[in-house]
Amino acid sequence: MYAISSLLLVVAVSLIITRVATVILVASGLSRQAARFQARSAFTGAGFTTTESESVVNHPLRRKVVMTLMLLGNAGIVASASTLIIGFRGGSAANAGWRILESRDATWRRLRRLFEDARPTGSVVEELIAERRAEAARER
User: Fold this and answer.
1) Which helix (H) or strand (E) holds 51?
2) How far apart are CA 79 and CA 112, in angstroms?
3) Rounded distance, CA 58 to CA 61, Å?
4) Which of 14, 35, 96, 140 has the least CB density, counted as fewest CB within 10 Å?
5) What mean pLDDT is reported for the chain?
């Protein structure tokens, strides 16, 4: 539930950002329809090349607004993807077994617990010598 509400929050913030950018572009002289289209295409990274986009690039305020939209759009994609991944994994990152931030000592303790059963019971050197002697005896 948390992931879905986070995704809806990201979508709502994205819509607000494109609306604010549309208002700024309209205030700079673009028509409302052209401003809405340019704001959405810059935010989504669609990259349409039209005469309208040339008028956006040639105006310093419009260019700054569009560059900011491009940056925020990429951040929105990352935020949406991460909330969806957490949602499909079945809850929060702590419940899914992910270790996002973990100290070095905690990592070593966890790895030692994980591999404690794989620890050899006797001497590895003695085991190797015994294997070599057995192999040499078979070859005779």
Assistant:
1) helix 51-57
2) 34
3) 9
4) 140
5) 81
- 35 phi/psi in degrees, rounded to 5: -65, -40
Rounded-to-integer distance, Cα 101 and Cα 112, Å:
18
Instruction: Evaluate whether 30 touches 43 at the Cβ level (below 8 Å).
Output: no
Q: Enter the tokens of residue 99.
A: 């270790």
Two tokens at 62? 């419009």
Amino acid at 116: E
Q: What share of the chain is helix, strand, coil (3-state, %, to 5)?
A: 75, 0, 25
Written as one letter, the residue type at 121 is T
Structure tokens at 1: 């539930």
| Structure token pair of residue 79 | 């935020």
- Is-above-0.85 flag for pTM? no
**What's 118's DSSP letter?**
G
Task: Give the dihedral of Cα atoms 127, 130, 136, 137; nearest 10 deg.
Answer: -140
